[in-house]
Amino acid sequence: MSHPANTPPAQNARMRSMDALRGFNMFWIVGAEHIVESLRRIDTGGAVGFVAYELQHSPWEGFRFEDLILPLFIFLMGAAVPFSLGKLRESEGAHAATQRVRRRAALLYVIGVLYYGGFGDPLHSLRFLGVLQRIALCYLFASTLFLHVRVRTMVGTCAGILVAYWAFLTFAPVPSVGHASFAMNANWASYIDQRFLPGRLWYGSWDPEGLLTTIPSFATALLGVFAGMLLKCDSVRCRRKVEYLAVAGLASVALGFLWGLQFPVIKNLWTSSFVLVAAGYSALLMAAFYWLIDLQRWRQWAAPFLWIGANALTIYLGVKLINLHSLLNWLVLHLTPRGSWDIYVGVAVTTAALSIEIAVLAVLYRRRIFFRV
Question: Which of 73, 143, 228, 264 could disulfide-link 82, Cβ–Cβ 3.0 to 4.6 Å?
Fold first, then answer.
């Protein structure tokens, strides 16, 4: 009898570990962050204080858990490419697969524009680049390369992007500054956004998902593709896949922080060192989820994450369209008497909102209802 860890997951089914890890990532966005913030108003020390600190973006240089959320999404999107497009390329050809990729990327990009204020807003207030738009562009880039070039070319492209981006930001003088700079509001990314990116910029004078910083995010997607190809490879034993992901993750984190001594780890610039650190942590999380869920079959603990991850776009858009937290907060404030327990209202409301959202996703999952582009 084979040990569970040596039995590969069925390749014709979605890998549960990927959906669960995507759901774990989304879990913090759709409500867990608000719960922690509410708890921090009660107690700022101990574990709550530490988690609250990690759930805030680094002011500029540095790396916190919050900085991992978007690159982890892009990494997982890349990891899904070999599974979603591999068979399509074999059955219908690269051209048909490319057409599908273009349609999906265009639709996701349009959804992103609408998500950030595209419903009847004037042109100058639209945000043409944002989280969903970046994911769409990364998907288009990584999928196109996967369908049309060899692995060696993808590896060279990934390395070339990281090195070229480092060289440009390190040696090219910023016109408005007179010398190379990584400083906030005094770097090439903010310079290019101010002059060439139309519409609304997230921080007024620059955008964290702007034009220049989109280029190194392509490398994040390609690193995810490599991880997905490893997981899909039948010639590598399952335990070996976990080991390779873990070793590669540790090496990437170490190399990224080492590179960061000269080229700082800055999420808002998506520096090459940041790409390596974020991809390293993503690979470590993937190794852990793959081993626990797909190999050891320990799945009950991850069920809520699986429900969220299987309908990630649904919940991401849903919390934007239906602000359940505000509705519950209004009901509590207007229908309950005030008292000493008011300090706990925030925790109760945020927990209730997240619980309702997860319950809805559980129903959708059990009925096999999935909304995807």
Answer: 228
Residue 302 covered by a domain: no
How many helices (H) and strands (E) the chain has is answered by: 15, 0
Instruction: Note the maximum CA span of the chain.
Output: 68
Total Cβ atoms within 10 A of residue 327: 12
The single residue listed with the structure tokens 């090439």 is: 188
Q: Looking at the domain assignment, is residue 308 inside a domain? A: no
pLDDT at residue 11 is higher than 60: no
353 within domain boundaries: no
Domain that holds residue 68: 4-25+55-297
Type of residue found at 29: I
Q: Is 263 left (phi over 0), alpha (psi -120 to 50) or beta?
A: beta
Amino acid at 153: T
CB 69 within 8 A of CB 25: yes
Token pair of 287 as six digits: 């190794």
Would the pTM of this model clear 0.90, i.e. be above it?
A: yes
Q: Which residues face 266 on adjacent strands?
A: 61
What average pLDDT score do residues 309-329 get?
84
Residue 272 placed within a domain: yes
Q: In 3D, which of 363, 365, 228 has the Cα closest to residue 286? A: 228
* Number of domains within the chain: 1
User: What average pLDDT does the structure give for the chain?
Assistant: 89
